[in-house]
From TrEMBL:
Organism name: Paenibacillus agilis
This protein's name: Endonuclease III
Its biological purpose: DNA repair enzyme that has both DNA N-glycosylase activity and AP-lyase activity. The DNA N-glycosylase activity releases various damaged pyrimidines from DNA by cleaving the N-glycosidic bond, leaving an AP (apurinic/apyrimidinic) site. The AP-lyase activity cleaves the phosphodiester bond 3' to the AP site by a beta-elimination, leaving a 3'-terminal unsaturated sugar and a product with a terminal 5'-phosphate.
SUPFAM superfamilies, per the entry: DNA-glycosylase (SSF48150)
Gene: nth
Catalyzed reactions: 2'-deoxyribonucleotide-(2'-deoxyribose 5'-phosphate)-2'-deoxyribonucleotide-DNA = a 3'-end 2'-deoxyribonucleotide-(2,3-dehydro-2,3-deoxyribose 5'-phosphate)-DNA + a 5'-end 5'-phospho-2'-deoxyribonucleoside-DNA + H(+)
Free-text comment on the cofactor: Binds 1 [4Fe-4S] cluster.
Gene Ontology annotations of biological process type: base-excision repair, AP site formation
UniProt signal peptide: none
Organism superkingdom: Bacteria
Binding site for [4Fe-4S] cluster: 189, 196, 199, 205
Cofactor(s) required for function per UniProt: [4Fe-4S] cluster
Family: Belongs to the Nth/MutY family.
GO molecular function, one term: DNA binding
C-alpha cells in the first residue's frame, strides 16, 4: 500500500523527470481534441497526429464531418486502427453535437460520456485539457505505472485505478500527474523494456526490484 509519504515522493519524482509533460495530441480547440482522443483508442498519439494534420484542415466543424459520405471519412482516417467504427462514431457524435449542444462540445463530464465513441477516459481528457477541470484519465500507461508503483493493485479495474489515484493525489495535481504518469510510462517505465536500472523510484518499486533481482540471478547463473 502506498503511504502518503511514498505518494509524495512519486509525484515529486515525476515532476522532476517530466516537468513539462502535456497532452501530445495536437489540437486547437475542444472539438478537435475530442475527435483526436476518440481516434487514439488502441492507436498511438503519434499516428493520430499524422492523420489529423490533414483531417483538421479538411473538417473544421461538426457540419463538415456529416457533409461527406461515410466511406470518404473512412478513407481519411484509414491509417487509424478500427477506422470504420471510429468514422461511424464521429459522424454520430457530430449529429448529436448539432442536435443537442448547438454544435459545441459540452463542458460537463456526464454530457460528454453520452456522445458516441466517448467513454470515461476520453471525457476526462477533454474536461481537463480543454476546460481546465481537474481529472485523471487512465490509459494503458497510467494503469501500468500505477500498478507497478503500488498506487493500485494488480487486479484493479481501470475505474478502480482512477478512484484510487483520485483519493491519493491532491486534486489540484490531478491533471499534471495524469500527463506525467503517461510520460513516465511512455518514455521510462515501458511495457516491454522498463528502464529499471536507472529508475529513481526503483527502491520503492516492487515490480522493478523483482525484475532486477531476476536479471541478476540469470547473470550469476
Amino acid at each position: 500500500m502506498a503511504t502518503s509519504a511514498r505518494v509524495r515522493r512519486i509525484l515529486d519524482t515525476f515532476g522532476e523527470m517530466f516537468p513539462d509533460a502535456h497532452c501530445e495530441l495536437i489540437h486547437s480547440n475542444p472539438f478537435e481534441l475530442t475527435i483526436a482522443v476518440l481516434l487514439s483508442a488502441q492507436c498511438t498519439d503519434e499516428m493520430v497526429n499524422k492523420v489529423t494534420v490533414d483531417l483538421f484542415r479538411k473538417y473544421k466543424r461538426p457540419e463538415d464531418y456529416i457533409a461527406v459520405p461515410l466511406d470518404e471519412l473512412e478513407q481519411d482516417i484509414r491509417r487509424i486502427g478500427l477506422f470504420r467504427n471510429k468514422a461511424k462514431n464521429i459522424q454520430k457524435l457530430c449529429h448529436m453535437l448539432l442536435e443537442s449542444y448547438d454544435g459545441e462540445v459540452p463542458r460537463q463530464h456526464d454530457q460528454l460520456t453520452t456522445l458516441p465513441g466517448v467513454g470515461r477516459k476520453t471525457a476526462n481528457v477533454v474536461v481537463s485539457n480543454a476546460f481546465g477541470v481537474p481529472a485523471i484519465a487512465v490509459d494503458t500507461h497510467v494503469e501500468r505505472v500505477s500498478k507497478r508503483l503500488g498506487l493500485a493493485n494488480d487486479e484493479d479495474s481501470v475505474l478502480e485505478v482512477e478512484k484510487k489515484l483520485m483519493r491519493k493525489i491532491p486534486k489540484e495535481e490531478w491533471t499534471d500527474t495524469h500527463h506525467r504518469l503517461i510520460f513516465f510510462g511512455r518514455y521510462h517505465c515501458k511495457a516491454q523494456s522498463p528502464r529499471c536500472e536507472v529508475c529513481p523510484l526503483l527502491e520503492i518499486c516492487k515490480f522493478g526490484k523483482g525484475r532486477m533481482k531476476a536479471a541478476k540471478g540469470r547473470k550469476n547463473g
